[in-house]
Design goal:
The complex is a heterodimer. By secondary structure, chain A is α+β, with helices and mostly antiparallel strands. Chain A contains two helices and two strands; from the N terminus they run E-H-E-H. A two-stranded parallel sheet of chain A has the order 1-2. The N and C termini of chain A lie close together (11 Å). Chain B is an alpha+beta fold. In chain B, a hairpin with a 4-residue loop joins strand 1 and strand 2. Classes of the chains: A alpha+beta, B alpha+beta. At the A-B interface, helix 1 of A face loops of B.
Chain lengths: 60, 359
């Protein structure tokens, strides 16, 4: 599962296609994440954890 | 920013397109297709491309390497097209071929360097007899305008990164600001004015070899010292200018380059110092007091560059993990300025031999 911020969505799609894995799942987070403190990062992680686990389970 | 779709340009052999013999119209077409660096190009007509291919000594369909991030195969023909567009002479081709063999090695991390927010370009650094053969300026204003080899070899590298690798701003190139060195970044060591053996002889090559060293690099930063008379004093200026905390190299590791002017190098050599002595003396001085580094930066980056987590008893860490990561070179013309070129960090320099075609 690829975790990215939304401004790099097109780059990620192109890169996955270039390496022959356009099927790999991508989760976009709002950009930027760098200013977030640890608590905010934890809250953000909570919002996507279920999706990460679900998509990771689907990946081949 | 809407990035143009250049996918048709990437696959298969180069296509021929027919355009009216109108210089301005050709420029407009290439610009609309997203095939330029923003500057006008030399139209890559079949005869010019054929001459450029011949300059390589290789067949047109020879695959040199896949170019990241698109991983499209760079053939000699496609390199030749971009070299024509950049304004190269055919005799530059062997150096360009060697450059892309080096850039495409996994250790260089071209995919990361193309896409990064960091402002850098691939520094193409040349040693050996090929410098004179191609007329590469290694002296006065070597990083500035005025010499075709420096200007167009570096430009050809960038055009390939755009047109084959898809390092297109907003699509495969996400530099926050970019840097003028992304247009062209090619020079070499002024071996004739250096007090020491050429850099490439310290990397396992002979003086008679020609090499290209590629470094994922920032633009150069000036180091002005007009008045030091002692090596010790000049070393202080050099080390204190380089000992910054905001550079990728400090946070992430790997190589950076110091370009000593011949006069600065002479002062150090006249004090009995070898290239390695200078390098080691600078690395001994380039230690960062962790009190200078914001705690959040340190906590995060120490997980990447492990040595940052292990300061010495005086709470300092070395700028480099290994003195060999400081590439000390000698180049430029008369004057008491030297240059510091930090690296991208998530990349290791690569060196490739340049084989000139036999006449």
């Amino acid at each position: 599962v690829n975790l990215i911020t939304d401004v790099f969505r097109d780059l990620t799609r192109a890169r996955l296609a270039a390496v022959g894995r356009p099927d790999l799942p991508v989760i976009c987070l709002p950009h930027p994440t760098a200013p977030l403190d640890v608590q905010q990062v934890g809250q953000l992680a909570d919002t996507i954890l279920a999706d990460v686990l679900r998509l990771a389970g689907q990946s081949t | 920013m809407n990035a143009p779709d250049t996918s048709a340009f990437l696959t298969g052999p180069a296509a021929r397109i027919a355009l009216a013999p109108d210089f301005a119209a050709v420029q407009e077409h290439f610009e609309r297709q997203g095939w330029t660096d923003g500057l006008p190009i030399v139209p890559p007509t079949p005869d010019l491309v054929a001459a450029m291919v011949a300059g390589s000594g290789l067949s047109a369909d020879t695959v040199i390497a896949p170019i990241a991030p698109a991983l499209a195969p760079l053939t000699v023909e496609k390199l030749a097209i971009n070299a024509v567009m950049a304004g190269c002479r055919p005799e530059y081709m062997p150096l360009l071929v060697a450059t892309f063999r080096a850039l495409a090695r996994p250790g260089f991390n071209l995919a990361g360097f193309q896409a990064t927010t960091h402002p850098g370009g691939p520094l193409v650094w040349v040693n050996g007899p090929v410098r004179a053969c191609l007329g590469i300026n290694c002296s006065t204003n070597m990083f500035g305008p005025g010499v075709r080899a420096n200007a167009t070899i570096g430009r050809a590298v960038r055009l390939v990164m755009i047109n084959i690798g898809e390092g297109i701003p907003g699509k495969g190139d996400f530099a926050t600001h970019g840097n003028p060195c992304k247009y062209s970044y090619c020079a070499g060591e002024n071996e004739e004015q250096s007090p020491w053996p050429p850099l490439h002889t310290t990397l396992g090559y002979s003086r008679e070899d020609s090499t290209v060293l590629v470094l994922a690099a920032e633009g150069p930063h000036n180091i002005n010292d007009h008045h030091s008379q002692r090596a010790e004093d000049l070393l202080t200026t050099l080390a204190d200018t380089m000992n910054v905390i905001g550079a990728n190299t400090f946070y992430l590791g790997n190589e950076a380059m110091l370009v000593l002017s011949p006069e600065h190098a002479a002062l150090l050599a006249n004090a009995g110092m070898s290239r390695e002595d200078v390098r080691d003396a600078l690395c001994a001085r380039m230690r960062v007091d962790l009190a200078r580094v914001p705690a959040a930066n340190h906590a995060r980056l120490a997980t990447i560059r492990k040595s940052l987590a292990h300061p010495a008893a005086d709470n300092t860490v070395g700028w480099f993990d290994d003195p060999a990561q400081l590439l000390v070179t000698v180049a430029g013309g008369p004057g008491l300025h030297s240059l510091f070129i930090p690296g991208f960090g998530i990349s290791t320099m690569q060196v490739e031999r340049v084989d000139l075609p036999t006449a």
